[in-house]
Amino acid sequence: MELHASELDNGISLIKINGKLDIIGVGEIETKFAGYCAGTNVRIIVDISGVDFLASIGIRLLTVNAKSLASRKGKMVLLNPTAEVQQVLEITGIPAIIPIYSQLESAETILLAKS
Fold first, then answer.
1. Are 63 and 34 within 8 A, CB to CB?
2. Local structure of residue 1 (DSSP, 8 states)
3. 3-class SS at 10?
4. What are the beta bridge partners of residue 54?
5. pLDDT (tens digit, 9 = 90+) per residue, 79-110?
C-alpha cells in the first residue's frame, strides 16, 4: 500500500493512494492518512485511481476521516475511482458522505467554494 501526499498551489492537499484498501493496506496507511486529515478547515482530494480493491475497512477509513474533517469545517472529496471501486462506493452510499469526481479541476472547484 502506498500513500503520497502533496499540496496544490491553492492550499488543497492531494493524497494519492495505490494498492488494496483491505485490512493490511489500511493498517499500513491509517495513521499517516489521519494525520493529513487533522487540523481545521482542511481541504483534501483523495486520488483513489490506484486503488484496485476496497474492503469495508477501507470504506471506514474514508468515512471516519471525512466526517472528522467536516466536524472541523474541512472537506474531503474522492477522485477518479476505478469502475469496480466506484461500484462499491455507490452500493454502500458513500457519495452521500464524500463527493466523487472524475476530474481534478471539478474537485478543486467544489473544495474552494464557500459552504
1. no
2. -
3. coil
4. 21
5. 999 999 999 999 999 999 999 999 999 999 99
Q: pTM of whole model > 0.90?
A: yes
For residues 95 and 21, give the distance between their C-alpha atoms in angstroms, rounded to a whole number. Answer: 17
* Nine cell digits for residue 80: 477518479
For residue 81, what are the β-bridge partners? none
Decide if 84 contacts 48 (C-beta within 8 A): no
Which grid coordinates belong to 9? 498551489
The rounded distance, in Å, linking the Cα atoms of 59 and 75 is 16
According to DSSP, residue 98 is labeled: S
Q: pLDDT tens for residues 20-59?
A: 999 999 999 999 999 999 989 999 999 999 999 999 999 9
Task: Spell out a b/e string for 24-63, using b for 16 or more CB atoms within 10 Å of the CB, else e.
Answer: ebbeebbeebeebbeeeebbbbbbbebbeebbeebbebbb
The CA-based angle 55-59-62, given to 5 degrees, is 140
Q: Which of 107, 12, 23 is nearest to 59 (CA)?
A: 23
Contacts of 105 (CB under 8 A, 6+ apart): none
**Helices and strands in the chain: count of H runs, count of E runs:** 4, 5
